Amino acid sequence: MLTGIGCLLALLTMPPAHARETPEPSAGRAAMTALADELGDDRTGGVYRADGRLVVAVTDAAAAETIRNAGGTAKLVAHSMRDLKAIHAELDQLGWIGNTAWGVDPSTNQVSVELFDGVSAADRARIEAVTAAHPGAVRIDRLSGTLQEAATPVHGGMMINPGSGYCSAGFNVQGNTGNKYLLTAGHCARGNDHWYVGEGSTYIGRVLDWNDRPGDWAVVNYLNSDVTPYGTIRLRDGTVLQIDRSGYPGVGDNPGVGDTVRRTGATSQDMSGTVLQTDMTMHFSDGATREHMIETTLCLRSGDSGGPLFYGTTALGITSGALDVASPCSDSVAGRSYYYPVQRLLDAKSMSVY
Question: Is 305 designated active site?
Answer without folding.
Answer: yes
